Amino acid sequence: MTTETEELDMSIYTIPLDTSVVALKASSAFQLLGPQEQKYAYFIGKASWEGAKICLLQCSPESVPIFCLFQLCFGSGISVEKMKARATVILMDQDIKDALMYVASFYGNMGNYKSFGDTKFVPQIESSKFKAFLSGGIRSEDQKTKFETYWTACSDRMYSLEPRQRQLGLGKEHGVTTYFSANCEEADSQLSTQFLNSQGLSPYNTRLFKTADKTYVVKVASSDKKKSDPIEMDGNTFQLEYGDYSPLMKRIADNLKLASDNAADATQKSMLLEYCKSFTQGSIDAHKEGSRYWIRDVGPTVESYIGFIESYRDPAGLRGEWEGFVACVNKEVSMKFQTLVDKAPDFLELMPW
Prior knowledge:
It is globular, with a radius of gyration of 24 Å. Strands 1, 2, 3, 4 and 5 form a five-stranded mixed β-sheet that branches. The chain is built from 14 helices and seven strands. The protein is α+β, with helices and mostly antiparallel strands. The protein has helices at about 5, 25-30, 35-55, 65-75, 80-85, 95-110, 125-135, 140-160, 185-200, 245-260, 265-280, 285-295, 330-340, 345-350, and strands at about 205-210, 215-220, 225, 230-235, 235-245, 300-310, 320-330. Helix content is about 50%, strand content about 10%. Residues about 1-5 have low confidence and may be disordered. α10 (about 245-260) packs antiparallel against α11 and α11 (about 265-280) packs antiparallel against α12 (about 285-295).
């Protein structure tokens, strides 16, 4: 790191080692679902996780190779203890704690910027030690080649705390963002909003790339790929390009279609089919229609929501970050609470007032 970096308050840019990692336990509730409900939950969950990779693309340029690096090293089935033993340098227990906290935090935020506060966080373990530890998860020469490719692509930016890279923001004076190309400033954002409004389009599932002076490409998230003819506006040229995140959007739509085949009723099925249409065609109107069905899906055993939802991470506050969740009612616990509710009148008579 640079001298300037060493003068920073590193507590802002690192994750405390006492940060808790909590497992979300859903297996018991899932087992109480019927076979159709389980399939419905499974396919929506799969669609959500396929879409989670979009968060990486929406966070920072280095988030994707960092993710690939970790998946490669921790997906090999080699334990942390063996990774430590196979490292080419001596690693202390503190080094392992530092490494694992960074990895856990990266997955927890789906990127290397805090989801609350948008501040970058960097590893507390030295770069050479981190590389040695991660390389302990490599099993073959092919994996070794991939490892070096991913490490080269992300390691410098992973540790960098150059002023612009310390936080998310739009423009060279404010931070980094992948909702806009690096050469965009606030004026470009405002111009793109005017353009999208003139076309009757929402910015919610878009990104903006400035390819030349007064020339822009608006990328729209969809599995279908197509480009519009150049569109002139006030001396500027715009082109709509559908197919942003296309492979991921297709997997999302495919899994939602499978979920719709296991829907509890027509409302759930219509909801998911509208979402499929939205993610296939890039239509925000279709997602809104799906959300209308979602409102009517009252008290479902399996609850979900999915799409480009919260706009906090877009510096302009207009573009949605990918979000997907599925939750199921714990029927056993719900039965107990229902008994409590049913007996509420009897309990009230026992109250001192």
